[in-house]
Design brief:
About 70% of the residues lie in helices and about 0% in strands. The protein is an all-alpha fold and about 270 residues long.
Length: about 270
C-alpha cells in the first residue's frame, strides 16, 4: 500500500510539473492561431473561435525565417559534429591513456568551466575584431570546432564506464590507441555522443547573444536574430511573433523525439564510475 501511495504521489507530482512547464508552449501556440485583436481579451481563450492559419503562411512567405534557419544550420552543424569528434578524442586521452601531466591538464581544462561567459565577451570581441572576423560566422563556428570542456568531462566519465578488458583484447589483436577509440569506444558510446550532439545543437540553435554581438548584416542573421526583428518589423504583432516562435521550435522537438532514447540512456549511464 505504501508503494502504491508513493508511486501515485510521484506521478501526480510529475504530471503537475509537466503541465506547468507545458503551459507557456500551449499559450504560444494558441496566440499564434488568433486574430490580432483578440490576443489580450479577458478572460483569455485557450482555443480561438476563429483559427487563423494565415499567420504561419505570412511568416513563412514574408519574413526571412527560412533563410535564418538555414544560416543557423550552417553555423551550428560543423561545430556540433567536428567539435564532438575533437572532444571525444580529448576525453579518450584523459580517460584511458597514461601520459605525463594528464591529471594536471585535466584539472586545468575543468578550471576553464569556472570562468563565466560574460567575463570573456569583451576579450573575445577584441580578439575577433583583430582577426577581422566581426560581421561573419567565424566567431560562432571556429571556436566550437575544437570542442568544449563540458563535453570532454561528460564523455570522459562515460568512457570510464567501459570495461578495460575490451581494450586489453584490442591491444592483443594489434590495434593502436586510435583504432581502439574508433572501433570500440565510439560504437559503445553512442548514447553519450548523441546526448552531447543534442546539447551542442540546442546550444547553438538557441544562441542569441553570440550572433547579436558578432553579426551586423541582415543577410547573415541566424534564426534567433530573425525572430528578434519581428517585434520591430511587424509592430509588436504577437500573433506573428508567436507563429514564428512555434515554427522555430519544430526542429528541436523533432530532434529530441528521435534521439530521446539515446539522450536518456546517456544521462543515466554517465557518472556511474570514476
Amino acid at each position: 500500500m505504501k508503494v502504491l501511495f508513493s508511486k501515485t504521489v510521484s506521478y501526480l507530482f510529475l504530471i503537475t510539473g509537466s503541465l506547468i512547464m507545458a503551459v507557456p508552449f500551449f499559450w504560444m501556440l494558441s496566440t499564434s492561431l488568433k486574430e490580432p485583436g483578440v490576443v489580450f481579451e479577458l478572460p483569455p481563450k485557450w482555443i480561438p473561435e476563429n483559427i487563423v492559419w494565415d499567420n504561419y503562411k505570412f511568416v513563412l512567405m514574408e519574413s526571412d525565417l527560412i533563410k535564418g534557419f538555414f544560416n543557423t544550420m550552417i553555423v551550428i552543424l560543423p561545430p556540433t559534429f567536428v567539435g564532438l569528434f575533437t572532444s571525444a578524442l580529448a576525453a579518450y586521452a584523459f580517460g584511458r591513456l597514461q601520459f605525463p601531466g594528464r591529471n594536471v591538464l585535466f584539472i586545468a581544462l575543468l578550471a576553464t568551466m569556472m570562468i563565466p561567459g560574460v567575463v570573456l565577451m569583451v576579450p573575445s570581441f577584441i580578439l575577433y575584431k583583430y582577426l577581422g572576423w566581426i560581421d561573419s560566422w567565424n566567431p560562432l563556428m571556429i571556436p566550437g570546432l575544437f570542442g568544449g570542456a563540458g563535453t570532454v568531462f561528460f564523455l570522459r566519465q562515460f568512457f570510464k564506464t567501459i570495461p578495460t578488458e575490451l581494450e586489453d583484447a584490442a591491444h592483443i589483436d594489434g590495434l593502436n590507441p586510435f583504432g581502439i577509440f574508433s572501433r570500440i569506444m565510439v560504437p559503445l558510446s553512442k548514447p553519450a555522443l548523441a546526448t552531447q550532439a543534442i546539447f551542442g545543437f540546442l546550444g547553438g540553435y538557441n544562441d542569441y547573444m553570440g550572433p547579436l554581438i558578432y553579426i551586423n548584416s541582415p543577410e547573415l542573421f541566424t534564426l534567433q536574430l530573425v525572430l528578434a526583428t519581428f517585434q520591430d518589423n511587424y509592430n509588436a504583432e504577437w500573433t506573428l511573433i508567436m507563429a514564428g516562435s512555434v515554427l522555430a521550435l519544430i526542429p528541436t522537438i523533432i530532434l529530441f523525439f528521435f534521439a530521446q532514447k539515446y539522450f536518456v540512456e546517456g544521462i543515466t549511464m554517465t557518472g556511474m564510475k570514476g
